[in-house]
Write a structure and sequence with these properties.
Length: 123
């Protein structure tokens, strides 16, 4: 079974959940409050229930508070989304995608990290 691509809101929730690994809706809600202070707990819980139904999250129901976890590792989902974006927006060209990303501004630190990665890859 293929996991559907998450919506923007679902991706935002996953960004909060990945560092936690597995968590209750309350823990995810608390993690998301820093960026979204007006976010209601019920909204987070409902979104997590929907994501579980879609297969984006797994749910352990053995405890009173259900524990949710991402169904896919962060790098796996990011790779899938990147491949999809590359096909749809850049005619399958990794070079075009990378050049577009670089044109949209990177910091000196990021540039140095990219250059190191490229040098290491050549050796």
């Amino acid at each position: 079974m293929s996991i559907p691509k998450p919506t923007a809101g679902e991706l935002e929730l996953l960004q909060a959940l990945w560092p936690l690994g597995a968590a209750t809706a309350k823990q995810v809600h608390e993690a998301m409050l820093a960026d979204k202070p007006d976010l209601a707990y019920g909204t987070v819980l409902r979104l997590m229930q929907i994501m579980h139904t879609k297969g984006i999250l797994t749910r352990d129901e053995s405890q009173r508070s259900h524990i949710y976890a991402p169904a896919q590792a962060k790098h796996t989902l990011q790779s899938s989304l990147l491949k999809d974006l590359m096909q749809k927006a850049f005619a399958g060209s990794a070079k075009a995608l990378v050049l577009a990303a670089l044109r949209n501004g990177i910091s000196k630190k990021e540039r140095a990290e990219i250059e190191k990665l490229l040098k290491d890859d050549q050796q």
